[in-house]
Amino acid sequence: MLQTTPKAQKSLLKNLGMMILCLLLPTAIGFLFISFKLSDTTIILLYLFGVVLCAKFTDGFYYGINASVIAVMLFNYFFTDPLFTLRVNNSDYPITMLIMMIISLLISTLTSQEKQSATLARHSALQATTLYNFTNTLLEANEIEQAQEIIVRSFSDTFHTKAAFLPQTKKGQAAPYLLQQIQANTIKHRKYRPENLEREFSSWPIKNKEGAFGLLLLPKIKEGGFDEAQKQLIHSMCACAALGLDRIENLHQYMASQEKITQEQYRSNLLRSISHDLRTPLSGIMGTSEVLMRLEISQEERIQMAQGIYQEASWLYSLVENILNLTRMEEGHLILNKQEALAEEIIEAACSTVEKRNKDRTIQVNIPSEIITVDVDEKLIVQLLVNLLENAIRHTPQENKVEIVLEADPIKKEVRFIVQDEGEGIGKEDLPHIFEPFYTSSQNQKDRARGIGLGLAICRSIAQAHDGELTAHNRCDRSGARFICTLLMTERKDLS
Description:
Layout: H1 6-35, H2 40-57, H3 62-79, H4 92-139, H5 144-159, E1 164-167, E2 177-183, E3 186-191, H6 194-200, E4 201-208, E5 211-219, H7 228-294, H8 299-331, E6 339-342, H9 343-357, E7 363-366, E8 370-376, H10 378-394, E9 402-409, E10 414-421, H11 445-449, H12 455-465, E11 469-474, E12 481-494
Parallel strand pairs: 7-9
Antiparallel strand pairs: 1-2, 1-5, 2-3, 4-5, 6-8, 8-12, 9-10, 10-12, 11-12
């Protein structure tokens, strides 16, 4: 015995009711026309109109064809002599009813085809809109899990069900969890039993040529499952989902390859710059040491040569310190040892280091009369200020001033370390790139002669590691550059 679902039974009753209604109405109106003594042709037209309505408002060809046959029989039964019988006395009626049958079948077929074409066009437009919106939503995802959630949400909303996604590796190993939409806009990780998946879900693979990304899981619908149009839409959406996941994987691979290329370029630039910049001071140290060993010179000359060796060695120490700090920052291994420190003592330590290396230069210090403290890694902030001060000295004539200023903003809770000079300033073409690693000004011979362009890059990294910022400007009041390091203030007290 043929088993039908409640949904199919409801559709059958609806179509039968519509067919009966489309045939009863012409019959009832036909009796009215007979009372007005109208011709049989008018009644035939009524039945043809009823067949058109039946083909229009029922599903499939069969109801329209059946309505065509039944319409001829009703016309013969109720409106031809002898009445209320299927016999025909008039020899013209068989031909009339045959023509009526042919016209009814043609009208029913053409109407059904037109309706089917309109339905297909509507389904195609809906499918195209759904795929367009689904693809655009997938383009917003940059992570695999984010895309998986979009897939689950889109299938759930499109088919009005609680869809799920079971991730898989390229080797076909399933994840120990699946993502399922429990409520609207609520997706949860859910543990599962493999033996229950087939019983609970219908599965649809999402894969490319290299392997599967996972399984789309749709709860099994008891009322007939999916029709052909829905199955086609599911296949199309699965293909779009595979393309979206494949795009994200390719994006991650591209980013990883670009990062590897960047690291290789970084290492190459670093090694090339170090080999160049280490050679000059080491040659000076070796030459001066050889002179000290072989020649008989005065004590004053020995002191001057020893100072030269010390300055070259100090520069090498600073270079190595900068390289180590930058390497730790790039690799994410730099650990901040934050402690509450006096801003004044940080400035004193930086100035002492710089003046010791540059005995012919004096740094002007301008600090307020309040005690200002900052929560920082003191060693790194001293290194930051040393780099800024040495950069200022290198670009400032000996007779001009290099100054460090300390400012506090109690409203914004900020402390500003300002290093400014009276040198030639920063070129407009250099200003956007001044904090980039290995960047040296093409117009400044001092930069090209010594320095691998790490100092300012390290300064900005140190400031950012402390949730601060470092900016560079040209001075407005006179020629020179101004570097401003802004950090958070922890405390401010009056000396009184």
